[in-house]
Amino acid sequence: MSKVEDKVLEHEYDGILEYDNPLPRWWMGLFIFTIIWSVVYMFYYHIAGMGETQEQEYAAEFKMSSEEYEKIAVQMNQMWSNISYQPLTEADALASGEQIYKTNCVSCHGAVGEGGIGPNLTDEFFIHGGGMKNVMDVIINGVPEKGMISWKPLLKPEEIQKVASYVMTLTGSNPPNAKAPQGEKWEE
């Protein structure tokens, strides 16, 4: 870079002098490039209409995400339409259900179903109805007014069937420190 001697303009205001120095060449080059770029950009997007506008890009992405959502919704509906309300009795299924219970349910229903924040699962009294179908429906839909979340988005239908089958095996186990019965006595 060449050093240019400062050039002072001939006028003075209250003892203040004004310099008239040229801008650096790199700055002027960047400034000119920016002007050329803005003209090309304006022509490409707004005059010729060759590029997509923000609205067009948004509409394309929205359409793509809507199609993906529809595919996922169809898969979820197929998955949940084939759900079985039959209790499982195989040892592997019950062991898997017990593991799911210990992972997700112990904090509210106790280690052996004795109850805590949630109701006692070992007696014959049910707040929302007993039997496999009602237990699965409570697990699937939750009970928001009581603080129980819906497990439908978190567990697969097979997992819900396994944990419900495990919960059904807890009936009549009479654990120590069980919570008092809540709801009505259930008879099939």
Query: How many whole angstroms does the radius of gyration measure?
Result: 35 Å
Q: Give the topology string: H per helix, E per strand.
A: EEHHHHEHHE
Give the helix tally: 6
Biggest pleated-sheet summary: 2 strands, antiparallel
Summary of the model, kept short:
The chain is mainly alpha-helical and 188 residues long. It has helices at 25-47, 54-81, 91-104, 106-109, 131-141, 157-170; strands spanning 8-13, 16-19, 125-126, 184-185. The chain has two domains: 8-47, no CATH class; 91-185, Cytochrome c-like domain (Cytochrome Bc1 Complex, Chain D, domain 2, Orthogonal Bundle).
What does the model show?
By secondary structure, the protein is mostly helical. The chain has two domains: 8-47, no CATH class; 91-185, Orthogonal Bundle (Cytochrome Bc1 Complex, Chain D, domain 2). It contains six helices and four strands; from the N terminus they run E-E-H-H-H-H-E-H-H-E. The strands form two sheets. A two-stranded antiparallel sheet has the order 1-2. A two-stranded antiparallel ribbon has the order 3-4. Strand 1 (8-13) and strand 2 form a beta hairpin. Helix 3 packs across helix 6 (157-170) and helix 5 crosses helix 6 (157-170). The model has no long low-confidence stretch (mean pLDDT 89).
Describe how the helices and strands are arranged:
Blueprint lengths: L7 E6 L2 E4 L5 H23 L6 H28 L9 H14 L1 H4 L15 E2 L4 H11 L15 H14 L13 E2 L3
Antiparallel strand pairs: 1-2, 3-4
Helix pairs in contact: 3-6, 5-6
